[in-house]
Amino acid sequence: MTDRIGKTFYLCKNLILMGLWKSIKDQIKAIADISAYIDVDDAGARIRNNIWFRGPNVWILAFSIIVASVGLNINSTAVIIGAMLISPLMGPIIGTGFALGTNDMPLLRQAARNLLVMVVISLLASSLYFLLSPLKLVNPTELEARTSPTIYDVLIALFGGLAGIFETSRRDRGTVLSGVAIATALMPPLCTAGYGLAHWNMHFFLGAMYLFTINGVFIALATYATVIFLRFPQARYIDAVKAKRQRRIISVIVVAVIVPSVWTAVNLIRVNNFERRVTQFVSDNRTFEGKRFIYDQKVSGSNQVEFSLTGEPLTDEDREAFLTDAEAYGIPRKSITITEHNFGVGTSEEVQKLVGGLYDRFYEELDKKEERIKNLESELFRLMIRLNDTTAVAPPPAAKD
To answer: What is the CB-side half-sphere exposure of residue 43 using CA atoms within 13 A?
Structure first.
């Protein structure tokens, strides 16, 4: 009797769990199903139209090149975002993936040709701009940000491309393509490469062109995969042998693009971890042995740091203790350089130079923070206006020195 009750209970529990699991699967399928929202015929027609590079697209490309170059030249993120939004470069790249997915070779040749023309025009125009521009940046952060792509840029391009082609394929289109244009950032790398050509800086040129290649390849790959997944009509039949060869070529290209970005990402993580350990060490040991002060640290490369100390001169025992403490934070002693500036030991000119440098650095950092605060206040005010907040108050004007 007990066994029968136990079996009945077990059977009822399984039936309830199976019913619950089926209900959950049905709910997930209903939420994730996209068949009712997709129009592949309309999407294919619009992708073909966006490949065309004549008339207005030529002028729009020229305008976006200048806008992006100016934004990079003045380190303005807002201007660079504007260039991303108006650039027509996305069309031929999506068209390339679409042509591969539908086996439309004439369209593939047209898309590749138009993309090549766009790239050449972008490089020439941006190079000319940077040659003629009188503004020479001391710290070109927006340019440098586009010279060291990593695996994270691969992920951005891949998932941004997936979002873009899904947005293109659905019946009721929204503003997703604008976000994709900003996230994948096709125009700024080309303008950065133009800067590299103008100043014959191969680090900028090669790094930026690699970033553009990553974005282009993985947007096209995302389009190719989505076109096959959504069963876009094929332009012509492709036999199994050709399909296999096509997939093999795509795989080789993808691997060739990914491998360097993985190495760069690993190096970036290594540098970031090293800088974090250095910062933590300085924070915990700002006053060393109560007689010395770590007033600056400079990290160079992935594993080199220079500590600047002031106070009493370090003895051999003190230096050994300093290096031992640093090793406890994961900073190898071979990576450490110690520079001493001892007040009362050097000449008055050396002391004045040291103090002047400290003050200059302090006020430079303070100015950067004040500028950041003003930008955030302005952005907050614009958002409040958009929300029709009648209580919004304009940010006060910057105080004059």
So the answer is: 26
Type of residue at 248: R
pLDDT at 375: 73
Residues 6 or more apart whose CB falls under 8 angstroms from that of 112 comprise 92, 96
pLDDT of residue 399: 47
Residue 117, token pair as written in the block: 């023309």
Alpha-carbon gap, residue 231 to 310, rounded angstroms: 69
User: What does residue 332 show for φ and ψ, rounded to 5 degrees?
Assistant: -60, 145
Q: Are strands 336-341 and 304-311 parallel, antiparallel or unpaired?
A: parallel
Which residues fall within 8 angstroms of residue 181, CB to CB, at 6 or more apart? 84, 85, 87, 90
Quote the radius of gyration of the chain (alpha carbons, Å). Answer: 29
pLDDT band at 63, cuts 50/70/90? confident
Q: Quote the CA–CA distance of 322 and 200 in Å, as a whole number.
A: 43
Dump pLDDT digits (tens) for 290-302.
667 777 788 876 6
- Tell me the C-alpha to C-alpha distance, in Å, between residue 69 and each of 110, 120, 201, 300: 27, 15, 16, 29
Starting at the edge strand found earlier in the chain, the sheet holding 336-341 runs: 287-288, 292-300, 304-311, 336-341
Alpha carbons 65 and 129: distance in angstroms, whole number: 9
Quick one: DSSP state of residue 391? T
Please, which residues have CB within 8 angstroms of residue 110's CB and are 6 or more apart in sequence?
51, 95
The 3-state DSSP class for residue 375 equals helix
Q: Above 50 in pLDDT, residue 204? A: yes
Copy the structure tokens of residue 244.
Answer: 């296999």
Q: What is the dihedral of CA 273, 274, 276, 280, to 10 degrees?
A: 140
> Quick check: 214 and 93 in contact, CB under 8 A?
no
Residue 100 burial (C-beta neighbours within 10 Å; 0-12, 13-18, 19+): buried
Query: How does pLDDT run across 324-377, given as a tens digit for each residue?
Result: 888 888 888 888 888 877 654 444 455 445 555 555 665 577 677 777 777 776
